[in-house]
Design brief:
heterodimer, A: 87 residues, alpha+beta, four-stranded antiparallel beta sheet, 4 strands, B: 645 residues, Mannitol-specific EII, Chain A, 4 domains, elongated
Chain lengths: 87, 645
């Protein structure tokens, strides 16, 4: 398992478009991807779950990836969040 | 902010007949306008369409949530339509959408995200979606949302409280050998947790060291802790937590029950008393079980020494055999290479008794017990007596002496703890660094010197007795030991035979160890064979997992057979016992010898009379297989062709 903490910097938080982008990108990996938001684990591959978690700008999240390609998955996840998911 | 505050009756249309994405959007915008949320209809529509151009807002499950943040919005609001026939909203999953909510939000603030989030939480529930679609009136539609939102709100508050705990329930599993039960119990608990929706993390204290170790924070945050272990695990960290202590097999057989109890908060609070034997757990553990647990703590720590040392010594003998060394006292050290392996193996073997005694004592009395037990075990090997303080060969009390030393060591320290309980708190620190080691080891020395002559005599008599047993008795012994290995496949019977085998190793009873191991290898192999040749006796799932049993059996992991034995004990266990007993008997009859206490097929190269050993394994496995085939009922419900998939 690999993990990294980071802060969501999108002005509007992880709303539908960025969340969808993230979930789709993560769906390509075999590893399980979880976002820990304020102590709750959220399935990082599910658009609905991410949106339901209501991740606003400035929220600290911990991304955890577990599986054979966990390192790649985490790198991609971090890259996406840090790049602001195209915003 | 509540969904029902944002959605008005004017903003709802039930049973809408829109038949394209464009129509759906126009309808929803019209509803937004009717609700009085929009200042500039055209600009709002442009924003909505611009958003859709970036990708459909259909999220799957028949849900679409078009939305736009715009200054064309007068006040935040929602509009909703249900489309019983579904409308193609270009969803990712390609399915038509039947529930559509449109969000209008002002450009600033998080309201947009909050509404979106809340809608998602509600709409995730399939039952809720069905209710909405079947709603007969706008009033009912709103009422359903209101009810669900209230219900979820309550639940949210509750999960919020729980959310401090990363895991609500923690588990620790451990079994004496740390190969199979540990992981089976962990898997069962995790699976049950998932099914019950209870977050759970399970630490496995297996032979390869602890994995998935619980952190301090996780322990602090957990509601309850399940310790499913047949040997001592690190307990001090659970001080003050609600702890359920059970056998490792309970972790496998009733995980739901355990999790339920852990969540309920009715488990007793554990207070760590620095190693008092199982202080508190409400239902006291039986004496037999306590003894078993302490013994197994010793055995599991001793095994690596015996395995490494035993194989080294076996290699030494093998080298000398190949070199054609004379069969006298120099055998095993005749060639330089053999002497090398013999010396290393001997060094490892030398730790057997001290480690056994030390860790039995540690299991009883925690860390202070270790040194006392260790020394006791060493004295047992040396055979010290009052008459011959440096050791007397006739008074070497060996394995039995070390067992006694282990338990004595534990109770000596417990006794000292009680005696010195009067010391003030400020003197507490002096106990582990002075009192326990000094007085403990002294008492141990006196005790061992006193019992060594007697136990040594028993020990010698026993090993002489075993060595002088006639062949027919040896065969019976082999049958009994082999059969015991198959009775409970890793439980007390199995372990009793196994410990007897390893104990025999120490006095040169290599044939006994050989019979024990072969008995433990038969059950998994027999099941795998049966699944291969008598396919009808197993379901397709069973057959798949049975294949792994070839490997399990060859590695001498009897536990592999447990799932099959548990599913059908009355037929499987007797079949296995019969085959194992025969294998043990054959091994004994042909004087097969094994100097390592574990290793399965990997130590076959160092087995003496290995050909007969292989015969024993084959005959035993085939007998068990045939019995299984005869006794087990066909799984007739499944047709064979389907299973080939």
């Amino acid at each position: 398992m690999v993990s990294k903490k980071l802060t969501v910097s999108n002005a509007q938080g992880l709303h539908m478009r960025p969340a969808g982008l993230f979930a789709n990108a993560m769906g390509k990996y075999k590893s399980d991807v979880f976002l820990n938001v304020k102590g709750n684990d959220v399935n990082g591959k599910s658009l609905m779950n991410i949106i339901a978690a209501c991740i606003k700008c400035g929220t600290e999240i911990e991304i955890r990836c577990t599986g054979e390609d966990e390192a790649d998955a985490l790198a991609k996840a971090v890259e996406l969040i840090e790049s602001g998911l195209g915003e | 902010m509540r969904v029902t505050d944002l959605l008005k009756e004017q903003g709802i249309q039930l049973g809408s007949k829109v038949n394209s994405k464009k129509q759906a959007i126009e309808k929803l915008i019209a509803l937004q306008v009717a609700s009085g949320n929009i200042a500039d209809e055209q600009r709002y529509k442009d924003a909505i369409l611009a958003r859709e151009a970036q990708g459909s807002t259909a999220v799957g499950y028949g849900i679409a949530i078009p939305h736009a943040k715009s200054d064309a919005v007068k006040c935040a609001g929602l509009a909703a339509i249900t489309v019983p026939t579904g409308v193609n909203y270009e969803a990712v999953d390609g399915k038509p959408s039947d529930i559509l909510f449109m969000i209008a939000a002002p450009p600033n603030g998080d309201l947009h995200l909050e509404v979106l989030s809340r809608l998602m939480v509600l709409l995730m529930d399939e039952g809720f979606r069905k209710q909405l679609i079947n709603a007969q009136s706008k009033k009912e539609f709103l009422k359903i949302i209101d009810k669900k939102e209230t219900e979820k709100y309550g639940e949210e508050a509750k999960t919020q409280a729980d959310s401090n705990a990363t895991y609500r329930v923690l588990g620790v599993t451990a079994c004496p050998t740390g190969i199979a039960h540990t992981y089976m119990a962990a898997e069962a608990l995790e699976k049950a947790g998932k099914e019950m929706g209870v977050s759970i993390k399970v630490e496995t204290d297996g032979s390869g060291g602890a994995k998935n170790v619980l952190t301090k924070k996780e322990i602090a945050d957990a509601d309850g802790i399940i310790v499913a272990a047949d040997r001592e695990v690190e307990m001090a960290r659970f001080n003050g937590k609600r702890v359920i202590k059970v056998k490792v097999s309970d972790g496998i057989s009733k995980p739901q029950e355990l999790i339920k109890k852990a969540v309920s908060g009715t488990a007793p609070v554990y207070t760590h008393a620095g190693g008092e034997i199982s202080v508190d757990d409400g239902e006291k553990e039986s004496v037999g079980r306590q003894i078993y647990k302490h013994l197994m703590n010793g055995v599991s720590h001793m095994l690596p020494f015996v395995i490494g040392g035993g194989i080294m010594i076996a290699i030494a003998f093998l080298i000398d055999t190949i070199a054609g060394a004379p069969q006298d006292s120099s055998f095993g050290t005749y060639t330089q290479a053999a002497a090398f392996f013999k010396a290393i193996g001997g060094a490892a073997f030398g730790f057997m008794m001290p480690v056994l005694a030390g860790f039995i004592a540690m299991s009883i009395a925690d860390r202070p017990g270790l040194a006392v037990g260790f020394v006791g075990g060493s004295i047992a090997t040396l055979g010290c007596t009052f008459m011959a303080p440096t050791g007397d060969a006739a008074a070497v009390s060996g394995f039995i002496g070390a067992l006694i030393a282990g338990f004595a060591g534990g109770f000596i320290v417990l006794f000292l703890r009680r005696v010195f309980a009067f010391l003030p708190k400020s003197m507490e620190g002096i106990k582990p660094v002075l009192i326990y080691p000094l007085l403990g080891i002294l008492i141990m020395g006196v005790f061992m010197c006193a019992i060594n002559p007697f136990v040594g005599w028993v020990n010698t008599a026993l090993s002489n007795g075993l060595n002088s047993l006639g062949t027919e008795y040896k065969v019976v012994l082999g049958c009994v030991l082999g059969g015991m290995m198959a009775i409970d496949m890793g439980g007390p019977f199995n372990k009793a035979a196994y410990v007897f085998g390893t104990a025999a190793l120490a006095t040169g009873g290599y044939d006994i160890m050989a019979a024990v191991m072969i008995g433990g290898m038969v059950p998994p192999i027999a099941i795998a064979l049966c699944a291969t040749f008598f396919k009808k006796k197993f379901s397709s799932d069973e057959r798949q997992s049975a294949m792994v049993n070839y490997i399990m059996g060859l590695c001498f992991i009897t536990e592999g057979a447990i799932p099959f034995a548990a599913a059908d004990p009355l037929r499987v266990i007797p079949s296995c016992i019969a085959g194992s007993a025969v294998a043990g008997g054959i091994s004994m009859a042909f004087n097969c010898g094994l100097m390592a206490p574990h290793g399965g097929v990997f130590v076959f190269p160092v087995v003496t009379n290995v050909l007969w050993y292989v015969v024993a394994l084959l005959v035993g496995s085939i007998i068990s297989m045939l019995l299984l085939a005869m006794l087990k009922k066909n799984k007739a419900t499944e047709a064979l062709p389907i299973q080939n998939k």
